[in-house]
Amino acid sequence: MEFVKKLSKKKIFQHTNMEPSEFYTSMLVIPNKIAAIVGLDVFSKDYKTVSANLMGLISIYVLFAYVSVCTVVEVRHDVNDLIYCLVTVGIGLQGVMKIFTFLRYRKDLVWIQDYSKALYKEEGETHRAVLMDDITIMNVLTKIILGFYGFTSVFMLLAPMIKTYLTGHKYLTFGFWLPYIDRFSWLGYFCNFVMQFIMSVVITSENMGPDTIYFMTMMNSVTQIDLLMIKLRDVCNKIENHDFNIKEDLKDIFKRHQEHLLYVRNVEKIYRSYFFVLFSSLGATLVLVLYAIVTRAWIAGYTSCIFIIYEFFIFCYLPTLLEMKKEKLQQEIYNLPWYKMTTSDQKSVRLFLEATQQPNCLTMIFYPMNMPSFMEVMKIIYSILTLLLTIRNE
Prior knowledge:
Order of helices and strands: HHHHHHHHHH
Strand content: under 5%
Shape: elongated
Helix content: over 70%
Radius of gyration: 24 Å
Number of strands: 0
Number of helices: 10
């Protein structure tokens, strides 16, 4: 994190906010505006479920489904072209699930962000420096993520254009095209490119905004644990200074921990079905992407591959980071000089420790979201890819 703190001094990451709550609120503006392009700006005060932008997004997906089906029918006898087309279907499935998630759980998403703002405002009075440090790190990482999305989108669109210009052969970003138009003519190529360009912008916006919001949501949960650990250290210092009036401090800690548990349960409720669809669809898609890269030298596939692995990684790493923080929280509880406390305070601390040891993590319905799961998925994908390449060579 020291490297990130150094980056925060760069001009692009600097800010003028002085209060944690205001800083965090300002950070939500950009991802919410990006999500507004596709009608998923659920944090806007005047948000309407039925909007022109959302209808446009749904229309894009309807067109995407239509041309994908037409392309599958056209290339059904060519395994390589069929795989090339099916690669985009998996990306589309997780996108549809993302729309459902944001519309179905809009109230829960708003509650999560409202709670975070209120927490930063309440705790900013006594722990301002710590909160500002955490939000500053979040600000740097958020801008890096947005930049990554922008770069991958531009590369996916430009790489086929550059290859088309250099070789004279017509290359498209994705493996589907408009029916009833000769895709090998320059007019057909231009029409298909325009269609895929519009789809890329829309789908990138749909991923960039909501994924950044998810990142910020999980970073907030980590900050909540940091606050609990600081409060525990304050209690420890009071006891070491022979100040045993800690009942109110312990009540505040227990209250914040209960709020944290509710926060994580809400996040889990919102995202668990999406996680399942994400790993199911993009897992199969990654196998096809890697196969297309190996067998067809698909340039745009490299970006798709990086994007999918990034999605898997970030969705698994953040819950793992939260689990690591929880282990540190338990260690802070162990470090309390409990033997100097009153009997009632000792019982309270013991119950608090037991509460922190209860499972409360993110899942994809029936499987935990963490780095071991990420590694397991990567191993399965590698095994399936190896099998497909072996069968092809035989």
